[in-house]
Amino acid sequence: MTTAKICFIGSGNMTRSIVSGLVSSGYSTELIETTNPSLPKLEAMKADFGVKVSQDNEQAVKNSDVVVLGVKPQLMQSVCEALSHLDLSKKLIITIAAGIPCQRYHDYFKQQINLIRTMPNTPTQIGVGVTGIYAPAEITDTQKQCCESIMKTGGEVVWVDEESELNQVIALAGSSPAYFFLFMEAMIEAGEKMSLPKEQVGLMVQQAALGAAEMVKQNPNLSAAQLRQNVTSKGGTTAKAIETFEQGGIRSLVDNAMTNCINRAEEMEKLF
Ligand SMILES: NC(=O)C1=CN([C@@H]2O[C@H](COP(=O)(O)OP(=O)(O)OC[C@H]3O[C@@H](n4cnc5c(N)ncnc54)[C@H](O)[C@@H]3O)[C@@H](O)[C@H]2O)C=CC1
Ligand SMILES: O=C(O)[C@@H]1CCC=N1
C-alpha cells in the first residue's frame, strides 16, 4: 500500500467512509489529515479514527502528497480557487465529487494539476464499497496505482476508459446504496404495520437483504433472476408479491430512476 501523506478537504459522509476504510485496513493515522470549517465534525473524525484534523485547507494541502477533494460540488470552485496560489505540480489530486468534469478543476486551480476523478460509495466505510476511477491520459501509472491502493481499502475498484462513464458509475454504485436503503425502509414501514415486534421486523429485513446480496456474490454462475425464481414457488406466496411488483412497473421505475440519476449528473456538469 502507498505511504503517501493524504489530506481530505471536507470531513463529511464520504470522507468519513473512505477514512474508515483506510484506517481499518491499517493505513497509518499519522499519514491522514482531514479538514472542515466546523469543529464538531473534526472532533468526531479525531475521536472515531484517530486521524489529524485541521480547519486550515491550505496548510493541510501543503503537508500532503495526495489531496482528496471531498466537498459538495457547489462548493468545489471556491474551495479550489482558495488553493490556486499553491504549487500543486508534485501532488496527486483525487476528486470524489459528482458532476464536475476534470477540465473544470484545472480552471478552478488555475494550473495543470495531476487529477484523478473517482466515484466511491458509502459502503466503503465497512470495506464493501465500490469506487469507479477515471484517469486522464497524462496521469502516470504510479499515480494511478497510488489512487487505486487508497480506494481499494474500501472495497472493489472499477476503472472506466471514458470520463462520461463515471456518470453510469454514479447510477450503478455511487447513488445506489440509497435505492437499497429505500427498499428496506419501505419493507420496514410495511412490516411495522403487522403485529411482530419492531426489532424482529428490522432484523428480518436486514438479514434478507444481506443474505440476498451474499447469495448473488457467492453464486457467480446464477443470475439474480434465477435466484429469484428459486424462491418463487408456482402459485405460492412469493409469486403473488413479485406479481404485485411487476404490475406496479418496478423494472421501468428502476430504469427511469437510474436514467434520471445520470441525467442529473450531466446537468450538474453544466452547473458547477
Ligand atoms: N455521500 C455519498 O454517498 C457520496 C458522495 N460523493 C461526493 O462526495 C462529496 C461530499 O459529499 P458528502 O460527504 O456526502 O457531503 P457532506 O456534506 O457530508 O460533506 C462535505 C463536508 O465538506 C465540508 N466543507 C464545506 N466547506 C468546506 C471548506 N471550505 N473546506 C473544507 N470542508 C468544507 C462541510 O462542512 C461538510 O462536512 C460530494 O462532492 C459528493 O458528490 C461521492 C460519492 C458518494
Ligand atoms: O447524491 C449525490 O449527488 C452524491 C453522489 C453519489 C452519491 N451521493
Task: Kindly list the characteristics that best describe this protein.
single chain, 272 residues, alpha/beta, Rossmann fold, ProC C-terminal domain-like fold, 2 domains, eight-stranded mixed beta sheet, 12 helices, binds 1,4-dihydronicotinamide adenine dinucleotide, binds (2S)-3,4-dihydro-2H-pyrrole-2-carboxylic acid, amino-acid biosynthesis, proline biosynthesis, cytoplasm
Structural write-up:
There is one protein chain. The protein folds into two domains: 6-166, Rossmann fold (3-Layer(aba) Sandwich), CATH 3.40.50; 176-268, ProC C-terminal domain-like (ProC C-terminal domain-like fold, Orthogonal Bundle), CATH 1.10.3730. The protein is built from twelve helices and eight strands. The chain is elongated and about 70 Å long. The protein has helices at residues 13-24, 39-49, 57-62, 73-81, 102-109, 141-152, 166-174, 176-191, 198-218, 224-231, 237-247, 250-271; strands at 6-9, 32-35, 52-54, 66-69, 92-95, 114-119, 129-134, 155-159. With 272 residues, the protein is of the alpha/beta class. Helices cover 53% and strands 13% of the residues. Helix 7 (166-174) crosses helix 12 and helix 8 (176-191) packs antiparallel against helix 9 (198-218). The protein binds 1,4-dihydronicotinamide adenine dinucleotide and (2S)-3,4-dihydro-2H-pyrrole-2-carboxylic acid. The site of 1,4-dihydronicotinamide adenine dinucleotide has 27 residues, from helix 1 and helix 4.
